[in-house]
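Convert to structure. Protein one:
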Amino acid sequence: MAGRDLEPPRRSIRETQGQAANYDDGKKARSSKISFASDVKNSFWFAKGSFDLSFFAATLALITIGLVMLFSASYPYALQNKGDSYYFFKRQLLFAVVGIIVMLVVSKLNFRFLKVIEKPLLFVTIGLLILVLFYHVDLDRSGEDFKRWIPVGPFTFQPSDVAKFSLVLTLAGYISKNYRKMKYIKEGVVVPAVIICVFCGLIFLENHLSCTLLVFMIGIAMMFCGGTRWQYYVAGLCVVAVAAFIVIKNPDVLPGYQGDRIRAWTDKGFDPLGLRWQTNNSLYAIGSGGFWGVGLGNSKQKYLYVSEPQNDFIFSIVCEELGFIGATLIIALFGILFWRGVKIAQRCEDKYSSLVVIGIVSQVAIQTVFNILVVTDTIPNTGIALPFFSYGGTALLMLCFEMGVVLSISRRVNTKRF
């Protein structure tokens, strides 16, 4: 009996299986916690899921068509002034390839990295906007003192291209933190206006009125989407209308070439061999294209009639070669890009990422509309480039980076496709 008392109690098969099951469940739970922690750690830097294919397809289509039209529009001017018909095309193609790679890499990053770079980018941008006022290269032959380009080896870049994106991040950060206070005049008007004026003031000192207006419009669009009361916009619109009326009636109030461009817009016979030359030939090109166009590569106005057709007035060559049909399809692509961007912004779970997307697609939309209005002589010649089409390496690279940001955010919101 004593020996039996010293034996360990026997467990039933059911009890043994239950303990084994509990052990396995505990092991799985610990493993699940470790896996979850690892996923959280990795997802902080990398976005999961698929991005918006419609937005991506529209971006690639615009880049591709832009490269084709850049070559078609630029080769006579490139041969005449650079001795190489492929001069502009080769450089733009290089930036396009790098830009697409950057876009794909950025699209895989978690959008939270934007909050990490927001403040450092703001200080770097302000520094570059100040630096370019003292260290720059003049790429214009009109004799005006433009301070827009910083030379970097064989290339140049415009800090204003970086400033557009930096303003978007800065305003997105501010508005998302003060969203409930945006209906008040201090938080909804005064503070954002000060931020916008700092950017606009520095860019205006570069003698870059067109970009100043563009940055101002981007800021206004973000304020509107951020919750600023519509009554303030009505008051602001009245002030702008009065100021515009005064400037149009008295162009001399603007310094240098800016006043002359207003005069050239209001007086169609003003300086036909000078300030009106590019605009007049742009209208000739658009009119020559008709409904179907004269055919890809068959433009006549690009043969040194439209000055530097690879830049701001490339859309006139598009209209001449591809006609009304081709120009409409390209505008439709820009419309799809903007529409898909708005859809992505609507599905965002937080205000910050939503405002970032709105700011980026608003920049592309406003810049596109302004360029077309200039080319058709609807507004004065302000020198605004057409996104994805006009020659400019840093501009294209920044656009691709921004498109990557939108694609990154679209992964998180899991937008529906067509």
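Protein two, convert as well:
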Amino acid sequence: MSDDNTPLSTRFRGYFPVVIDVETAGFNAATDAILEIAAVTLKMDEHGNLVSDQTFHAHIEPFEGANLEPAALEFNGIDPTCALRGAIDETQAMKDLCKTIRKAQKAAGCQRSVIVAHNATFDQSFVNAAIERSSIKRTPFHPFVSFDTTSLAGLALGQTVLVKACRAAGIAFDQSEAHSALYDTQRTAELFCYMVNRYKALGGWPLPAQSTDNNNVSDSPASE
């Protein structure tokens, strides 16, 4: 059982960071299908550095009535009708994801999960829409708070494109693997960890002693 005072549970004000990437059949979260989703949870190592932990990955069948934009499918190279994808029902995928994240969140002693993503608003909107369609009432994710590695990379590395930010950080990136949700999530997780750990190494963390009230976060969105 994890101690509620572990470094991860206090590092982000009680939030449990979950790196996520989705591949979709368009840009509209309300109408366009999620075709693939991947998530990587994070943990602190023995030196207090952030590292990747567990991985979740699923190919997803388009929900009933979903829009499939040909241009989006050409861009990501996904054929939704291909049986070899091993795609599963969207509701099952989202229930499995939420169950996995809730378990890891609890083990870390955190109170709420927050999505970490490159251009996070996009991925968060699709995850939120899929969770709503799946009628999942107990979602681990905060509905609107997110950590955007695009903005963080612009600040820390002077780059906003994922491949360029990774290379600036010394993280190998195979362009031919791009637009796979699993690959992009793994690289985004490495990038986020690099920036958080680099800030720590430069003396930016931990901060001087603060009121413990600053580390408490309510499950209510109204508290934000």
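Strands lie at 15-24, 34-44, 50-59, 112-117, 141-148. The CA atoms of residues 157 and 192 lie 11 Å apart.
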